[in-house]
Automatic annotation (TrEMBL):
Residues 25-331 form the Carbohydrate kinase PfkB domain. It is an enzyme of class 2 (transferase). It comes from Vigna angularis var. angularis. The lineage of its organism: Eukaryota, Viridiplantae, Streptophyta, Embryophyta, Tracheophyta. InterPro entries: Carboh/pur_kinase_PfkB_CS, PfkB_Carbo_kinase, PfkB_dom, Ribo/fructo_kinase, Ribokinase-like. GO terms for cellular component: cytosol. Belongs to the carbohydrate kinase PfkB family. GO terms for molecular function: ATP binding; fructokinase activity. Keywords: ATP-binding, Carbohydrate metabolism, Kinase, Nucleotide-binding, Transferase. May play an important role in maintaining the flux of carbon towards starch formation. Its EC number is 2.7.1.4. The gene is Vigan.08G073600. This is fructokinase. GO terms for biological process: fructose metabolic process. Pathway: Glycan biosynthesis; starch biosynthesis. It catalyses: D-fructose + ATP = D-fructose 6-phosphate + ADP + H(+).
Length: 341
């Protein structure tokens, strides 16, 4: 594998680089309500009040792709309650296909209280005992929708509990058998797993099936048991596998690294004034999947891959300039406009 430096201009985006006229992307997993303090830099206990926002990484990605002009659908379960109907409505209003959503009359939509403390650490408090998203059954899967997908995208939270875990594995098999590209963002939420070991094993249990994986530096350290996330050898020996077409390591505002069967390199980040980092990773994933859905040549064509990753970096950067995940996700026009400045 030849090492490629970050020379070569990747920031001359045009509409040609990101047509987005590809097949539909199906995002599978959880959608929930995030409650975020009305003031920043406080613990959950100190927060004077909370504002509700739609959350859940797979749902955010579905909206992000649709916002960019791509075709996306969400498959998952919410409660047959006010919050569940509100979430489905938000997806509909953002042009996401909601035919794969199930409503559970016996379980509530999941809630998460999230805060960014003064020390910069995020604090999570989840209400899921069990919540509707954990109860999706294999028999409830929208199989025709999954079969039609070009890309099937998922996280790891849906692998924690049954029956959702079995539904998740069945959905992956349907997608794989239909020739879908499998896209995986583990999105580690340690507080939801029974133990760190369970999280490590659960996340790795589907690792070898993915065609595309996006992972953060922290997740590398966690999955490798403390290895240096910046060491290419660690990434290639411990995380890259022979079925993988693309492994992306995100470094926040620093940009991202990429590894394929043929080449590796990095694309620098985009400097902005960050207001709220919620949803930045999901926006990045939306940007790269949106490009992938219309152009699979980026697995072999490094120049095109670099442009797609720069596009994804811009998606993430724009998202941190406004509060909330879904409200801050950019349109394609906003990304192209930003790239010109």
């Amino acid at each position: 594998m030849a090492h490629v430096t970050s020379s070569g201009k990747s920031n001359d985006l045009t509409n040609d680089n990101c047509k987005g006229n590809g097949g539909p992307v199906v995002c599978f997993g959880e959608m929930l309500i995030d409650f975020v303090p009305t003031v920043g830099g406080v613990s959950l206990a100190e927060a004077p009040a909370f504002q509700k926002a739609a959350g859940g990484a797979p749902a955010n990605v579905a909206v992000g792709i649709a916002r960019l002009g791509g075709s996306s659908a969400f498959v998952g379960k919410v409660g047959a309650d006010e919050f569940g109907y509100m979430l489905a409505d938000i997806l509909k209003r953002n042009n996401v296909d909601t035919s794969g959503i199930k409503f559970d009359p016996n379980a509530r939509t999941a809630l998460a209280f999230v805060t960014l403390r003064a020390d910069g650490e995020r604090e999570f408090l989840f209400f899921r005992n069990p919540s509707a998203d954990m109860l999706l059954q294999e028999s409830e899967l929208a199989t025709d929708l999954i079969k039609k997908a070009k890309i099937f995208h998922y996280g790891s939270i849906s692998l924690i509990h049954e029956p959702c875990k079995s539904a998740h594995l069945a959905a992956m098999k349907i997608a794989k058998d239909s020739g879908c590209i499998l896209s995986y963002d583990p999105n580690l939420r340690l507080a939801l797993w029974p133990s760190a070991e369970a999280a490590r094993n659960g996340i790795k249990s589907v690792w070898d099936q993915a065609d595309v994986i996006k992972i953060s530096e922290d997740e590398i350290t966690f999955l490798t048991g403390g290895d240096d996330p910046y060491d290419d050898d660690v990434v290639l020996k411990k995380l890259f596998h022979h079925n993988l077409k693309l492994l992306i390591v995100t470094e926040g505002s620093g940009g991202c690294r990429y590894y394929t069967q043929e080449f590796k390199g990095r694309v620098a980040g985009v400097k902005v004034n960050a207001v709220d980092t919620t949803g930045a990773g999901d926006a990045f994933v939306s940007g790269i999947i949106y490009n992938l859905a219309s152009d699979q040549s980026i697995f072999q064509n490094e120049e095109r891959l670099r442009k797609a990753l720069y596009f994804a970096n811009v998606c993430g950067a724009i998202t941190v300039t406004a509060r909330g995940a879904i409200p801050a996700l950019p349109t394609k026009e906003a990304v192209l406009q930003f790239a010109e400045t």
